[in-house]
Amino acid sequence: MARKTKNPPSETDVLLTNYIDQTLANTGKIGWSSEEVSGMVQEVMKRFLERCLESEMDFHLKNGEIVPREKAEPEAQEAINKRNGTSSKTVLTDNSKVRIDVPRDRLSTFDPISVPKYERHLKGLDDKIISMYARGMSNREISAHMKEIYGVSVSAEFISRVTDDVLEDARTWRSRPLQDFYPVVFFDALRVKVKSGNTITPKALYLALAVKADGSREVLGMWLSDNEGAAYWTSVFNEIRARGCSDILIAVTDGLKGMTKAIETVYPKTMHQTCIVHLLRNSTAFVSYKDLKQVMKELKGIYGADNAEEAKNRLEDFAESDLGKRYSVIKQMWLSQWDQVVPLFNFPPEVRKLIYTTNSIEALNRSIRKVIKTRTMFPTDDSVYKLVYLAIKNATKDWSKSVFRWRQAMLQFVVMFGDHQPKLEDSFYELLYGKSLNSLSLKELQKKYTVPFIIWANYDIDAKSDVENVSANYLSSLMLQQTNLKMSRYNEFLLNMRNEVPALNANGYVDKDGKNHELSENNEYTKLITQYQYLQYNSLMDKKHVSTDLFSEKDGK
């Protein structure tokens, strides 16, 4: 068996190895203490940074600018730049602070890259600070931690400046383009306290978590408000629409004030579903512990009913029972939100389990609460956005899998069609057509392969009955188009092709004017059909060279 050979070391590896070997040989020591190693690392960092700066200065002086005479010394035609000593500067690194000598030039035009002017910390330190801040540590806690663990002193003001750099990223994230369609979007709110002048104002932080067509999750945005109502939520939905989201199938909320009216205004076709779990919590808030189990059993029978009518009857039955009379407020609470409860019954159990609870967004909220609970109040709205944005990034970085049972939930679209008419004896068709099969025209032959089809969904979609002629190869694209789901470039190609060639099979095709053609014909459609055949072969047969970006969903960018 042949042994695997190692890759040859890079030039950098060789230089570093030689340097370390030479350094150790010169010391004559067998072992080093941790303090000595730390000091050596600091010295190496100092030498490395200073050498980088010296190299930059050499390049600057060699290729630097020449100062015009009016700005130069009187006796000189022009002033040539040159070195002008050094200045000392302390730089904070990931694990320590290093005192370095920064070269200066006579004309003060040197602007180093290795250690930029006015910067006293390297980038890695910023990442450490932001990471600790994202986990809920206060500025003073971070300062104490950096001092204790790394021996680096950083002020709370410095930490604030570092974390403020996140604000621009947060603003970009909050205004980024969205997909044009989301099957389910959960809306929920958290409470925070924000300082306003000399007072502390309680505010609501609203979050929108979407489940995309592929089952993955995406936080659409966050909004901070001290007001709630139809006008506010209308502005939120208008913002979501302006960012590209033209349609939402189901909006799941926790009885947020003004939500229904706002949805009807901006997304009139969207179903508004109350979060059943929140409704259960509110219903049982004042139920005694000894009755809680039985009440929950009765309520489960309501939202677990087969249909809305059965659910309504079970609610009435509960209200008439001794338990229901004891807690009569439960019936009123459910009836007040009944219009937002009943959409649940339009869907099979797989979909219901997904939408009757806001478990997905509750998990996100728990992650956010962990980092905001250490804040008794926030100094500004921006400080809320900054911290929550970082918390969302941490909470969502491992969101790669689809939500639980999403595949079962999405299998609620059905495309039904026949392959061809029943296989019968040739004599039947000769009797039907009144002539032999060999004498049939292409149009007559195609009738043998003409069958009805239907695209069905378990919720309301726009009905279409104007599709007079279509072949099976277009049906997937028609379904994606009808249901506003993402499609690949190949699907888009098929829809464009259908405008020219509405139907085709192994026998031939029909053009846009309704005329039948043999596949062997050479005409204006030949090039298009040839392209289609190439793509078919690439997708089905040529697995080594298949164009995955053509046959997969677009990324929405």
Please count the beta strands (DSSP E, at least 2 residues each): 12
How does the overall form come out from the CA principal axes?
flat
Largest sheet: 5 strands, mixed
- Strand ordering within the main sheet: 5-4-3-6-7
Instruction: Give me the number of helical elements.
Output: 24
**Which structural category fits the helices and strands?**
alpha+beta
Strand content is 15-25%
Detail the poorly predicted runs: 66-72
Distance between the ends: 48 Å
Key attributes of the depicted protein:
single chain, 557 residues, alpha+beta, 5-stranded mixed β-sheet, 3-stranded antiparallel β-sheet, 12 strands
Report what the structure shows.
There is one protein chain. α3 (123-134) packs across α17 (381-396), α10 packs antiparallel against α11 (308-320) and α16 (359-372) crosses α17. It is built from 24 helices and twelve strands. It has a five-stranded mixed sheet, sandwiched between helices. Among the domains are: 9-114, no CATH class; 412-551, no CATH class. The radius of gyration is 35 Å and the shape is flat. It is α+β, with helices and mostly antiparallel strands and 557 residues long. Mean pLDDT is 76; it is low at 66-72.
